[in-house]
Amino acid sequence: MPLRPTYRHPRAQEYRAPGGAWDLPSLDAVLTEAGRRARHALVVDDSVDVRLDGPGLEAAVARVAGGLRAAGVRRGDVVAWQAPNWWEVYVLYRAAWRLGAVSAPVHHLAGDADVERMLAAISPKVWLDRTEVRGPRFDTLLGGDPVAPGAARPADLAAVVFTSGSTGGPKAALHTQRSLAYKARIMVHTHGLRPRDAILMPAPLAHVSGLLNGVLVPGAGAFATHMVERWDAGRALDTIARERITFMIGPTTFFVGLMHDPAFTPAKVESLRLVSSGGGGVSAAFVEEASAALGCRVKRTYGSTEAPTIATSGPRDSRRRAAETDGRAIGAVDLRVVDPATGRPLPAGARGELWVQGPELFSGYVDAEQTRAAVTRGWFRTGDLATLSDDGWCTIVGRIKDVIIRAGENISAAEVESVLEAHPDVRQAVAVGYPDDRLGERVCAFVLAPPSFDVEACRAWFEARGVARFKTPERVVVVDAFPLLAAGKPDRATLRDLAAAG
Hints:
about 35% helix
């Protein structure tokens, strides 16, 4: 059964009006028009020495679209895969969009249990595992009869992107072709990007950040994406120098790794002119250090799977503001800080939950109940605590949701706790994040269990359950009892402080 939006923008008519945010063709048309005449490389994959220019990329997209159509894929059907950042993944995205189908990437590190749940939620028409994405199955798709642009519509669903929520298990967020096309175009303008630019993309293309900045923005700006199959700071430095990389975006862990790698020299990163960093652990101190070490403009950015990159700064904005805040609203997006208990807007400078409304907002989750829980009167409730200045600059100051962000990966505390409590020796568990200079946060598990349940036992249990490695606790603390709130619930704030203290 085809996926359908579970949320409709209250300002959709305004967005669709002439000159409005959605007054543009389909995503397929936007990307095809931007890149078809580019004679320079648009997709570079050093893992197999592939470089696709505009005509080469167009030919690959057209043929794989034909292969998918021969496999029975039609408008609204889901095409899913699990693979790292390979050129084949870029082409699969674009080929599905050409047919008006829905791209559904699965994180390449997701365990068997995660994959099973994701596929059950989306019922893909075509599914390719890692060996099929780079293997005979993809080769067969690449041999399809070429499909010309023109079949896709702006209102077609384009992508389902999985994100961990605070209630456990992955959520499946839906985006349309027009919402992604709008976001791609506006971010090219916001960052001041041109065809001579080149981005190095270490963030997984299965994440909204990888999708936006590894596929959509370079596609709309007709500049090169350099794929990173597996992050290695030393190799990344060589690639930056060799390929004259100008732009990078991602969590702080990537840039800390670059700056502190033994092979780092200023000469290797002299081509960089813009670094944008989001997620947990982005501080003014990091921006200052990275700006000095990398010799380029470094700024903070804020967004989510449901509302990609809604706040950042542009080339003409204050560098101080770019370092001390998470940016200002981009394009037609509206930001509001509210009292989390009442939903009433708060005055400038007050701390509250950040609510978002805009044309880039998702079209809901696959699960309509999850959508209703997350959207109020057209506003997406981010679950993040923020302040807004009187001139519109946003600063994220914490999270309401119990989500741990490790190296850009969202980890549901509830999901980790569920896996822990399935162990016969664990009576109860509370998972929290604790600060880490390199990864932003790591996972600490407080458990009511015998002393024999240590980190090694925990790691073996998570591996046996098919859970992704990055979700596995890296610290296990056996306790006799949890500190409790008045309502009898574990006091997570106290536990986070204990974890941070080591």
